[in-house]
Write the structure tokens for this entry.
Amino acid sequence: MNETLTRLRYRYWPDHWVGEILSKRWTETAIPVLLLIVVVIASGRLIGNFYTPGVLADTLRQAGEIGLIVLGMALVMIVGGIDLSVGSMFALTNFCALMLMHVLKWPVAFAVLGTLVCGACLGAINGLLIGYLRLRAFLTTLITLIIFRSVYEILSMQYSTEIAGNLPDSEVWNFLGDGTFLGLPTVAWVYAVAAIGGHLLLTRLRLGWHIMAIGGSRRSAYNGGIAVRRTVALCYVGCGILTGAGGCFFASRLATAGADIGVGMEVLVLTAAVLGGISLGGGRGSVTKAMVGTLLVLLITNGLTSMSAPGGVIRMVLAAILVLAAVIDVRWLKNRQRIISKVYISPTYHKLGDAPDCSEEAAGRYALNNKLRDVKLIGLGRIEAPEDVILDREDNLYAGSRHGDIIRFFAPDYERMEIFAHIGGQPLGMAFDRGDNLYVCVGGMGLYRVTPQQKVERVTDETNRSWSSINDDSRLRLADDLDIADDGRVFFSEATVRYEMDEWPVDGLEARGNGRIVCYDPRDNSTRTVLRDLKFPNGIAIASDGQSILFAETWGCCVKRYWFDGPKSGQVEMVIADLPGYPDNINLASDGNYWLALVGMRSPAYDLAMRMPGFRKRMASRLPVDEWLFPNINTGCVLKFSEAGEVLETLWDLGGENHPMITSMREHKGHLYLGGISNNRIGRYTLPGADPGFNQYERRWRAA
């Protein structure tokens, strides 16, 4: 009964909510949200009639006006900057709106547009100086604060009387300031639209991803090809536009150009942003955090005002809050990895079928032997982490290296070697196309191609985003293995969308469907995800019908088949269930069957732990990674199977003396070449009775 409840709890609880609750984003937002709840309760007790419609409507109006400016400040902070001139810009845009409406008598639509253009121009000044001329944001915006304030004081002194004596007779203008729609102030609706747009920008659009990347590391973003200067400048322009929108609503509500308009607003807005959780260091922040911070600061200032606190006291309180929030932010930046490492893992219930009997006494095809004990070693000590191996039409051998290289060993003795290509990331699965281009899955980088002239080309590093995912899953984190269809389409597995390459044990500990299969079509250079929610998909091989692929699910201990064309297009079926170990790469055999590498072997203790998510969570939070419970990776195994799922032969290296943790194998002219991501060698095993003329490259493309 308890096992059933555990299974229901962890299997049917939505993965994305579990991931969000346990993610850094939730951890960073939880404290401001809880603080907001406390402040709301306290405001209800301290402020008379706080929950009445009139007071709430007035609070929402102020929140909308200030919130627009906070959104602008959040934008420049996320990109790694700061804008101390927002108070002066607010005053100038407020004056612009009053001038256009009261003095020049422009129509409302043109007056609003003119005010937004004014804000954009003011923001563009900061953007030009900071983005393109690369001046310091703090000092630059401090100077523009003084300049903009001086301009405002000169203009307001000259036109304040004329503005006060020429009130516009416009119901639309009055509706902007004091009107309501469905019981909510107009500015609240506009703010909601701006907040939704900002959320979509930061989480769904390329520009938002660039903003986050620049804030996280400006140099890395520049090296990655992002237009850093232009993006930074656009963020300041956006801040100016949002500040102009806030000034426009303020002008329509109060119609005043007093000398104290916008004074100290930069402190209020900056406090709201930092208190909500927008990082001073850049690269972290969201619209939700900006909204929470706005409400917090507004309720605190309104509460102090209702208690007749002097303006100086209010500013001192805001300054103290800003200092405290900044200290917390800096300490969080320094220590967040130690904090979140204990809460980021979200294991689920995962029950595997019974493992087959592999004992020497077993009569089945899985019976233990020691056939891989004596293999010829290639490149011993001269190559590290050859995860996959492949041979070309001239019998030369290729393998990836931990140092980001593809190493070529020359036939026939494979003693002479060279760096065929330097990619920079860990090469994983490899496959030749009919034009002798070598396609390579590179961990953390995506899909790459090496031409016969040894030129390295990036093919794709992203796919279409899943709209049901909270976090951005368009970037390829762990492209793993691949094969190429007859028409040139490249099908490759991405083992996990949640973790980086060095964090693969964490994905195994979770045992969730974090992986997918992706298709790159060279005919239109498009990349799309064709199959989701897979448990660490790994090996890929085009089936004999040319319309389907065989793929391995490592944590599922199974091999499945997916049809990408034909009458069964989109269907998935089980080929081999309940393997004795964890499958990795799949490749064609000379007799038309397939070879499969088992990267590790199952054990009763680990299988039991997979049915105990609470145990795995406690283990991950209380023990270092090197003390976690792991599968047995000390026994090497390769097996041959048919498309019908029949296991035909197994090759074992008991104790893993030659090849522990075998991740790939490739049959070529009577030999089986073995790769392993934890090994410092390539194995060459002579296959009794195998076709001595079998060349996988020629067989594959001659048949096509």
Notes: DSSP finds 19 helices and 26 strands in the chain.
